[in-house]
Amino acid sequence: IRAAVQEGVAQGANPRQFARAIRDHIGMTETQAKAAMNYRRMLESGDPGLMGQTLTRALRDARYDGTVERAAEAGRRLPQAKINELVDRYIERSVKLRAETIGRSESIRAAQAGNHEGWKQFEEQLPEAKGKLRRFWAPTADERTREAHMTIPELNPDGVGLDEPFESILGPIMFPGDPDAAAANTINCRCAIYVRIAD
């Protein structure tokens, strides 16, 4: 909302335009709001190069690509109603992506917190296991996994105790989705923890 207001002031928007911008951006992060405003600016520019760049946006509605391509090739500006329609679809997809990210992150956080609590109860019920449980980080090995999580096993080669956080280049983290860890270290994390009983 702050980004939308700042943009409106800079462009001399009227109250209705402010209201539309704010309504459109509720539920979006500041970064998403700025991306949507840049998308609108490129579409409104009438510049073939900038309009062509909108076709690389992952959150665009590709059903409109032909319309944008034809306008760019003809060097003409899209009608405002069409621009509004394209931006509305872009915003809907941004909000959907954010909702999916939050849902995924929170469900993983809940599952991992439950697993952690389960191991603590296991240790309490088996006194001979007290202090012998070692937790190890298991990153999801694909191109979507953040570099910081790929290096956690190297930074913690002997694992960590039940109540010790893992060291990571983004700061300490108890488990995937740890609510006390930095957001950059937890959002969309798909890693796992496995536990061994030390000999």
What this model shows, in words?
- It is a single chain.
- This protein is mainly α and 199 residues long.
- It has eight helices and two strands.
- It has helices spanning 2-11, 15-25, 30-45, 48-53, 65-74, 80-125, 147-150, 152-155; strands at residues 133-138, 192-197.
- It has a two-stranded antiparallel sheet.
- The longest helix has 46 residues, at 80-125.
- It is elongated.
Quickly list its features.
6% strand, 199 residues, mainly alpha, 54% helix, two-stranded antiparallel sheet
Distance between the termini: 56 Å
Radius of gyration: 24 Å
Kindly estimate the percentage of residues that lie in beta strands according to DSSP: 5-15%
Q: Mean pLDDT, rounded to whole units? A: 88
Helix amount, in percent?
Answer: 40-55%
User: How many beta-strand runs?
Assistant: 2
Broad structural category: mainly alpha
Low-confidence stretches: none
Q: Helix segment count?
A: 8
- Helix-strand topology string: HHHHHHEHHE
**Main sheet record:** 2 strands, antiparallel
Strand order of the largest sheet: 1-2
**Tell me, what's the shape?**
elongated
